[in-house]
Amino acid sequence: MPDIAWQKLGDYLQETQVLGSIHSTLYWDQNTSMPINGAKWRGDQLSFLARSLHARQSSERFEELLHEAKDEFQRNYGLKPLVSKEFNEKKRNLELLTQELHRQKRLDPDLITQLATAQTNGYSLWQQARRENDFQCFAPALRYLISLRQEQAKQLDEPRSCWETLAQPFEPDLTIQRLNELFTPLRKRLPELISKYCLAKDINQQKWDLEEKSQQDLCERLLQEWGRNPQVTSIARSPHPFSITLGPQDFRLTTRVVRGQPLSCFLATAHEWGHSLYEQGLPSQSHQWFAWPLGQATSMAVHESQSLFWENRVARSRAFSYRFWKYFAEAGAPLTCGHDLWRAMNPLTPGLNRVEADELSYGLHILIRTELEIAFLEEGLEVNDIPSEWNKKYKELLGVVPSNDSEGCLQDVHWSEGSFGYFPSYLIGHLISAQLSEAMIEGLANDGVQGEDPIGECITNASESKLLSWLRREVHHYGRQLNAEQLVEKVTKKPLSSRAFLTYLENKLEQMTSTP
Amino acid sequence: MPDIAWQKLGDYLQETQVLGSIHSTLYWDQNTSMPINGAKWRGDQLSFLARSLHARQSSERFEELLHEAKDEFQRNYGLKPLVSKEFNEKKRNLELLTQELHRQKRLDPDLITQLATAQTNGYSLWQQARRENDFQCFAPALRYLISLRQEQAKQLDEPRSCWETLAQPFEPDLTIQRLNELFTPLRKRLPELISKYCLAKDINQQKWDLEEKSQQDLCERLLQEWGRNPQVTSIARSPHPFSITLGPQDFRLTTRVVRGQPLSCFLATAHEWGHSLYEQGLPSQSHQWFAWPLGQATSMAVHESQSLFWENRVARSRAFSYRFWKYFAEAGAPLTCGHDLWRAMNPLTPGLNRVEADELSYGLHILIRTELEIAFLEEGLEVNDIPSEWNKKYKELLGVVPSNDSEGCLQDVHWSEGSFGYFPSYLIGHLISAQLSEAMIEGLANDGVQGEDPIGECITNASESKLLSWLRREVHHYGRQLNAEQLVEKVTKKPLSSRAFLTYLENKLEQMTSTP
């Protein structure tokens, strides 16, 4: 059974991926090295690449190659009674490629160019607007991006609403109805928890900071203990931390140092490293599938579940603070015991900023953004009304009001790049992380890890490699074989819900506020 | 007189330049951020871009557009008696484009791909060979690169020798005969100067070093005083300092800190900044000609003349040391006066390393490489014999012998990337810098700068901006309107020779060794 057509299709995909990864490299450079005035030309480069990518992904040649590979697949497997792993993987690859081809073919190349330009432009105006606290300077660009995205959803012509259509690349198969099922319990319970555990207690957090160099050293120690291999991972600084994969052996992440927030860089490092570990665990390595859909991340919520696991379940855990506090103290932090660091890692104070939010209030930041996105994409919310709606929702859900738009609705980059439908992934990621952690606890116990809290046990003993092994074995290697909810159900034997997350939160809050 | 065809050709060139600058961005990233195991995939990316670039530069569409633009040019200007600046510029652009098209069309696309792969491979093997001091590990890759380049020269089929053909992209119109005319006086005179001024004197340079952070601060101060605008320039670290332009408003440079060589980073910064100033002064800005040949650097020797001017004529001058020594002393350097720094800036000790060489011995490093290149490309020198030939020539010309190949013939990156014909540009750059400086001295005097040494005067008064203005006005803005020798003759009213350089050297050496 020769697989000539399969190989040819693979070569084509490989070249598409080469082109796509060039686009990613330019994005990395833009955020880590490019001088600000390079933005216009960079926009031309990105727009050229977006056009070329779209042309490749919607070309007759691609359609032909895909068609031939399907025929060959039919010939080779059609009569076989046994359904093998290889069969399933190939079948899924072909399905995903067919879906992607149809999507790309429906899009007008002019729209691709317009979008690329509008994104570069939107990003640069958003930067200015945020700097100058002037929402009006960004509003026309946002309005234009919304109209282009609405047009895109129309062209894609899927049996979904506009917002749902745009959310597909991030969260395949997600519907607004399902989102409501998942989020409604949170919208009710999170504010109750906040008022019980935060507003009721007077937490006098001591103000302190750490030298930039010390923060860097702590981050380096963290990644070293978590098994970073510098031959395949690079680290740089950027205004917003992110993680990105530029080749099968080329993983990058960025952090930033925020003055007055000595743990920001450390937690961002943990978070971005979690993203990177997922990418590093995808089936690209063993199966040479960097170019095939199956080798890719299945959804941004699963991605977030991995980053949040390492940030919240590990770095923000009590066990971790008890192990690491002395390094912080050596670096100059005014800490006298592990508990001090644990409290500092979990401030439990609802604030205005999503990125710096704790686990408890984080979800509310997402609910607000999700509701607003759906409103301006589908329900006619005017762009000019976003700031006041934003502030109203913050007052209602978090009890705080931004004093200006820079710390309000201008704080996030996503909308400036026309990324609508992305935000819920962050919160679904919390739910997935919690539910996977429950399964991990069982799994580790079966693997022979002792104690009531096997995750904490591994952290205490500096054997986080056991946590990673479990994730590699149970979660990472599927790639896009399963979508997010299928993956969760496969691993945890239960449908995804908000239960595990709320249980985890309540336990942690109880522990946190009752220990001395 | 509409110039529709001209505009269309411009649009095409613009897109070619977008693609070319993407290639450069990947090169930048490779040297500043990429983890080492990213090399293979990066090679695939660069090879894909090289292929795409070659396809664009040799396409029928390009030929057609060029043809139409020429016709239009004939129609619009053919009957005009007056030869305007615009006429000259357009004519030159068309000539250069025609030449480039013919070159690209003669090259087999397969060769382009093979070369791109061989370059990536050669670079990575060279890194290993140098690390492990094992020339044999690099030798087969070098042999292969030589054969591919020889094949390239054959395909280009120019009325020049193999080495000359390969040197054209760096030094248009250069011949080996002309090279001999320029270099022969140096081959004779430089060793005489070395034995007179260096070997005869016992110069006991004090050993000292500076903290990395202090070196960084000194470099920052330097560039700030030399008018750096951070909105258009970025700085990073790389194993080998370089300067590169990634867009009309996007200039990058790298430096490195070498332990035990406290001035290395500082002088590299001055050098790379000189390159960048030339690029920043090219006519791309005012004429929107980033995409046209005329907006580009005319030759690597002219490029080097600019970097060497800022490194040697300015940063290594007495005036500069007298002004800057106190900052070095504040940073911890054991200096008690300007003269101390001046001596440290000009060690006058022939060594094994080209990059760290002083002005006096630098030329000899180049002579050796040039002779070897011509020998292995044209005269049958076997790759295996390069190390012994290298060492023999070092003994003869510099009186030193490398103790191993890593500090000998493996020290430079150029050959590992198949860049043959590049080295002479460095030395021609010294000659051009010296000859332009003589003209600058006259020019500054006419501009009203007082004193016997107007360049030193400007440096003493921290008005290097006057030097830059002169270079902008007299040198930079020509772009490729004139080739290197034409440019020198235009500015200095004399043909290029080694006289100015030797005169400058002898004066400086005399001054240096006679002052207390």
Automatic annotation (TrEMBL), chains A, B:
Keywords: Carboxypeptidase, Hydrolase, Metal-binding, Metalloprotease, Protease, Zinc. PROSITE patterns: PEPTIDASE_M32. The keyword rRNA-binding does not apply. SUPFAM superfamilies: Metalloproteases ('zincins'), catalytic domain. GO terms for biological process: proteolysis. It catalyses: Release of a C-terminal amino acid with broad specificity, except for -Pro. Its cofactor is Zn(2+). Its EC number is 3.4.17.19. Zn(2+) binds at residues 271, 275, 304. One of its GO terms (molecular function) is metallocarboxypeptidase activity. It holds the Pfam family Peptidase_M32. The keyword Repeat does not apply. It comes from the Bacteria. Binds 1 zinc ion per subunit. The active site is at 272 (proton donor/acceptor). Belongs to the peptidase M32 family. Broad specificity carboxypetidase that releases amino acids sequentially from the C-terminus, including neutral, aromatic, polar and basic residues. PANTHER family: CARBOXYPEPTIDASE 1 (PTHR34217:SF1), METAL-DEPENDENT CARBOXYPEPTIDASE (PTHR34217). This is Metal-dependent carboxypeptidase. The lineage of its organism: Bacteria, Bacillati, Cyanobacteriota, Cyanophyceae, Synechococcales.
